[in-house]
């Protein structure tokens, strides 16, 4: 497995904040609501809801928040959520993908148009950007919770295909089919998963100059701040 760190180039990371935690909670609750709208509010008979509830607990959503949203979703006036992606071209030919979960397609379409009007970039046709990416599992593990050599061996044996690190964390990438197995192995071994998600990882990278990098970052940050956008990925090599 490669030993270099590339996560900063995959998903533009701002300083961790309560806002980011709020987005994680929001995404988890959207999945709960969507599962209920599709299969009812009883997790005993709705397997999608069972999975959504467990995912919410995995990201530390409080039980009372989960219960409140289950009751809310069971009411007839709750809108369903759909998952979708927008593909964009940034400056210098950089590809950008915004993962979205929304209950109003017209609203997010308008928000994306405003983003490109304000920050530049263009909306690409579906597939034009995505073919340069592949969806993989990404897990961030606190260094304080695991020994590097032991963790490397553990995740390698369970199917991970890339291992690197930054100042505070170990960064692990997995094929989609190995994601849950690797995550469970880390947790059983005492490791603390600070992040665990399916991410869009670039197959090719675009090197840009400082000016284009600044413009792309402004567009990416605008997209990240949209309520319906859960994550933004790109293939820009930041100077």
Please state the average pLDDT score.
Answer: 86
- Main β-sheet: number of strands, strand sense, barrel status? 4 strands, antiparallel
**Unreliable parts:** 1-7
> What string, H for helix and E for strand, traces the elements in order?
HHHHEEHEEHEEHEEHEE
- With strands numbered from the N-terminus, the spatial order across the biggest sheet is 3-1-2-9
CA-based gyration radius: 19 Å
* Overall SS class: alpha+beta
Q: How far apart, in Å, are the first and last alpha carbons?
A: 25 Å
Helix content: 40-55%
Number of strands: 10
- Outline, from the CA principal axes? flat
Count of runs of 4 or more consecutive helical residues: 8
Into which percentage range does the β-strand content fall?
Answer: 15-25%
Report on this model:
This protein is 42% helix and 24% strand. It is of the alpha+beta class. It contains eight helices and ten strands. The model is unreliable at 1-7 (pLDDT under 50).
């Amino acid at each position: 497995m490669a030993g270099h760190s590339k996560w900063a180039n995959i998903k533009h990371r701002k300083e961790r904040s309560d806002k980011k935690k709020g987005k994680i909670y929001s995404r988890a609750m959207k999945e709960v609501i969507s599962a209920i709208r599709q299969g009812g509010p009883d997790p005993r008979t709705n397997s999608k809801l069972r999975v959504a509830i467990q995912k919410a607990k995995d990201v530390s959503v409080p039980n009372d928040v989960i219960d409140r949203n289950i009751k809310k979703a069971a009411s007839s006036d709750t809108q369903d959520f759909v998952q979708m992606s927008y593909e964009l071209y940034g400056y210098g030919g950089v590809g950008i993908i915004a993962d979205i979960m929304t209950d109003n397609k017209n609203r997010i379409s308008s928000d994306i148009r405003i983003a490109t009007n304000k920050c530049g970039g263009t909306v690409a046709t579906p597939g034009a950007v995505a073919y340069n990416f592949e969806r993989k599992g990404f897990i961030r593990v606190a260094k304080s919770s695991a020994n590097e050599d032991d963790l490397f061996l553990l995740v390698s044996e369970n199917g991970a295909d890339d291992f690197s690190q930054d100042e505070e964390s170990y960064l692990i990438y997995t094929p989609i089919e190995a994601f849950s197995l690797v995550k469970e192995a880390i947790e059983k071994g005492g490791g603390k998963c600070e992040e665990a998600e399916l991410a869009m990882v670039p197959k090719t990278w675009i090197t840009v100059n400082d000016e284009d990098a600044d413009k792309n970052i402004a567009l990416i940050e605008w997209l990240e701040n949209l309520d319906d956008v859960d994550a933004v990925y790109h293939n820009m090599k930041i100077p």
